[in-house]
């Protein structure tokens, strides 16, 4: 059994036309199917508006698809009893792009990271603090950061805090939606390294959503290309991606090759199987 199975998912937003009063249906995702195995990362790339974030929300149980199924550990996430729902809420976490708006500016790092622990675990104050310190250290921060507020951290540090919160409950799958996209190149590669280490240490799986193909290359075991709501191709190896004849993939490839030669150094670290 795969950790996550997405089966023929169709999703549309219904919006009411202001002038005509009619309901309009915008098809966003068409017949999407793929699996993510335990301990693996699927990179989902595609241009802006392709439907990547919507697909992330469908997988997180936030947007119910009109058709199709999302199975997590074999359970249909839109048809769960209370006990399984609780378990899946622990096992399935998310880190969004904008680290600033993802956190409450009036909460300290300690409060931000303890929140999921308070919701799901019965810990004493001392145990909770010890866990938060361990989590801070695991993401490259320290006890000195406990009492700091979001505005006292850089974008990269704040993203480390978001990652610490996401791993606090030892989840199985993390949806990373443009999680490194707003960071500078150096910070981006440090966070990618952290994510990669956490994946190896905890056997974590990721759905790594990005418009940045280079970032996707550096962490993914498999890559999917989403374009206008269609998952046009899935690749298990770098060679497959580079030899694809699909016109959209050709365009994506040209956009990388046209860029700085720096990409060549990143591509040597690729995780392809
Ligand atoms: N809440 C919403 N209501 C209506 N349309 C939406 C909503 N959210 C996103 N869309 C539309 O769905 C399409 C896909 O958006 P999104 O999933 O955010 O794409 P991506 O993350 O690939 O940039 C876009 O055309 C967007 O305008
Ligand atoms: Mg998006």
Give a description of the structure.
This protein is of the alpha/beta class. The chain has a single domain, classed as Rossmann fold (3-Layer(aba) Sandwich). Helices cover 40% and strands 25% of the residues. The protein contains eleven helices and ten strands. It has helices spanning 52-59, 82-91, 99-102, 109-120, 125-138, 155-167, 185-202, 213-219, 238-243, 247-257, 262-267, and strands spanning 4-16, 23-36, 41-45, 67-72, 75-76, 92-95, 173-177, 205-210, 222-227, 230-235. The strands form two sheets. Strands 6-7-8-3-9-10 form a six-stranded mixed beta sheet, with helices on both faces. Strands 2-1-4-5 form a four-stranded antiparallel beta sheet, covered by helices on one side. Strand 9 and strand 10 form a beta hairpin. Helix 4 packs across helix 5, helix 4 (109-120) runs parallel beside helix 6 (155-167) and helix 6 (155-167) runs parallel beside helix 7. The protein starts with a strand and ends in a 6-residue tail after the last helix. The model is unreliable at 263-273 (pLDDT under 50). The protein binds adenosine-5'-diphosphate and magnesium ion.
What's the short version?
The chain has 11 helices and 10 strands. The chain has 273 residues and is of the alpha/beta class. It has one domain (4-267): 3-Layer(aba) Sandwich (Rossmann fold).
């Amino acid at each position: 059994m795969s950790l996550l199975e997405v089966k023929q998912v169709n999703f549309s937003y219904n919006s009411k036309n202001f002038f005509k009063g009619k309901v309009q249906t915008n098809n966003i995702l068409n017949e999407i199917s793929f699996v993510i195995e335990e301990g693996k990362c699927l990179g989902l790339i595609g241009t802006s508006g392709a439907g990547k974030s919507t697909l992330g929300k469908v997988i997180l149980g936030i947007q119910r698809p009109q058709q199709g199924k999302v199975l997590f550990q074999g359970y249909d996430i839109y048809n769960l009893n209370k006990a399984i729902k609780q378990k899946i809420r622990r096992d399935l976490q998310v880190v969004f792009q904008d680290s600033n708006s993802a956190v409450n500016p009036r909460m300290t790092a300690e409060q931000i990271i303890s929140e999921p622990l308070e919701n799901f675990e019965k810990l004493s104050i001392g145990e909770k603090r010890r866990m938060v310190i361990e989590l801070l250290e695991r993401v490259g921060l320290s006890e000195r950061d406990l009492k700091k507020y979001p505005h006292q951290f850089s974008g990269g540090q704040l993203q480390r805090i978001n990652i610490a919160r996401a791993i606090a409950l030892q989840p199985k799958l993390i949806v990373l939606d443009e999680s490194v996209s707003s960071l500078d190149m150096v910070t981006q590669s440090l966070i990618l390294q952290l994510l990669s280490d956490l994946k190896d240490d905890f056997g974590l799986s990721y759905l790594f959503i990005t418009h940045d193909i280079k970032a996707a290359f550096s962490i993914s075991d498999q890559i999917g290309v989403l374009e206008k709501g269609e998952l046009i191709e899935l690749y298990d190896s770098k060679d497959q991606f580079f030899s694809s004849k699909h016109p959209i993939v050709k365009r994506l490839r040209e956009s990388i090759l046209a860029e700085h030669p720096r990409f060549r150094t990143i591509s040597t670290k690729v995780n392809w199987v």
